[in-house]
Amino acid sequence: AAQNVPPPLKRLPVDRADAPSPAAAELRGRLAATAESFLGIEYVWGGTSSESGFDCSGLTSAVYRLNGLDMPRSVGEQHAAGTAVGADRLTAGDLVFFAASPGGPLTHVGIYVGGGVFIHAPGRGKTVRRESLGAAYFRARFAGARSYL
Fold first, then answer.
1. In the CATH hierarchy, which fold is given to the domain comprising 22-147?
2. pLDDT of res. 9
3. Which of 120, 133, 141, 145 is catalytic?
4. Is 134 a catalytic residue?
């Protein structure tokens, strides 16, 4: 007697870079959650902790450090340490970099948390906040993104 067997499933080719391991996906979620936990902390030049305040690269290095990952301290070193990722392929935990003028030196960094949003320590007199990468100010200054996972 013939059994009622469904046809075999088709296997689609998968780009491994697009299929992060569950551990990497969990870590990316923790990086985003850690960044979110610092919203409202005061900007302080040279700051590297929630107690003393953060500057932009102090925030990103602290987020990584608190999740057991080494991250260089300066904007330039953080940029050099990562692997380039296109703006259309950003994933939570990637760092986004900005320049004061198009093609100019890197001056700022934030951490991407998903949905077109990043978290950063914007500058004196301000606090750690969420911003849209789509905002004209940041679009004009966007200088690339890096992944570390």
1. endopeptidase fold (from Nostoc punctiforme) (3.90.1720)
2. 44
3. 120
4. no
